[in-house]
Amino acid sequence: MEELLKNPHRSDDPVPFASTREPLELHRKLPGYAPTPLRESPALAARLGVARVLVKVESDRLGLPAFKMLGASWATYRALVARLGGEPQWSTIDELRVAVAPLRPLRLAAATDGNHGRAVARMAKLLELDATIFVPDDMTAARIAAIKSEGATVVLVDGTYDDAVAQSAAMQSDDCVVISDTSWPGYEDTPRHVIEGYATIFAEIDDQLAGQSTVSVVMLPAGVGALAASGVAAYAHHVPRPKLVSVEPADAACVLASVRDGHMVEVPGPHRSMMVGLNCGNASLIAFPVLLAGLDWCVTVHDGRAEQAMRLLAADGIEAGETGAAALAGALGVIELGGRDLVGLTDDATVLLLVTEGATDPESYEQIVGHAPGAPDVTKA
Ligand SMILES: Cc1ncc(COP(=O)(O)O)c(C=O)c1O
Questions:
Q1: Cα–Cα distance between 293 and 60 in angstroms, integer?
Q2: Pocket test for ligand 1, best of 165, 259, 267, 356 (most atoms within 8 A of CB)
Q3: Cα-atom radius of gyration of the chain, to the nearest Å?
Q4: Distance from the CA of 116 to the center of ligand 1, in angstroms?
Q5: 3-state secondary structure of 198
Q6: What atom in ligand 1 is closest to the CA of residue 228?
Q7: How far apart are CA 90 and CA 87, in angstroms?
Q8: Which atom of ligand 1 is nearest to the CA of 221?
Q9: Can you tell me whether residue 48 is helix, strand or coil?
Q10: Domains in the chain, start-ordered, CATH in brackets?
Q11: Each residue's pLDDT tens digit, 194-243
């Protein structure tokens, strides 16, 4: 069931997470760095009935089709620096590879529903480290192949994403670093760095918008809530502060359930949404207090709305995968649920949508949108 919830615990106290531009300095030194586009979409603005829609398109981020490399790279870097006992001097990836060589043999391990694991595997490949990625056993062949293409070992876990997280956690050892994007008691540093790493998205948006009108509503897709927490931290100091809205699949809405109750609530699987990056039963322990203090609204959407959002984005020339379309699906859901005025999707609003991935499952993309990724959209004419 789709649902819109006003956060009863929203606070004006300082948000318990400081956003930093430090990761941006790392990202600038990685191969292929460029700010991702911030697209203006008059067509989507007309569709939503708002003044402006800005779409931050993460379909090509550091050579991968999702934003996740931002968190995986910064968190891996911080973990390796901790193992080295100090920050090395380097300015190119080749120099960094040499600097971390004394740590070998070393393995990076992670659980994933697709994008984070591929990003960790890419980081391992760049640094000539090994990688083992744990995935739920219902992951599509295309996503598994994408992780394997980075040279990682993929382990299929009998169960959900949350079961994969539990298995990956047990890998931590002298010769294995777990790079998880979610956190649990006693494991908080790396996932904190993941949240910090995502700040590059918001730093770029600030730079791209310099001198233009301010954003009034931000739609934040939420799986474990790390990206949304990064958004909350980034916008905490904006004046006026935009309304911040989390978006989740209807049957994996652990952020909404936890925000409603004021404490972490597990939403047991199986989670079957096609928005696979959001199929999480537990919010991240360190993201949750940030979300509780800073989210204004939580909305849940069903898969049909994600499909509709993918087609609307495609018609405007933006290739978004199922999870990537969630932010627009959320905005459509808010309107459908009668929340237009409450949330502020009004005719004077500037709405920011994070399209967090491209067509990460090309076959599924073609089935939903009607043409293959990369092909022109005939409905545009
Ligand atoms: C494409 C995409 N968007 C959004 C998210 C949600 O991020 P988080 O788990 O930090 O809430 C994910 C997570 O895997 C993802 O892959």
A1: 31
A2: 356
A3: 19
A4: 8
A5: helix
A6: 11
A7: 9
A8: 4
A9: helix
A10: 3-66+192-380 (3.40.50.1100), 69-187 (3.40.50.1100)
A11: 999 999 999 999 999 996 768 999 999 999 999 999 999 999 989 999 99
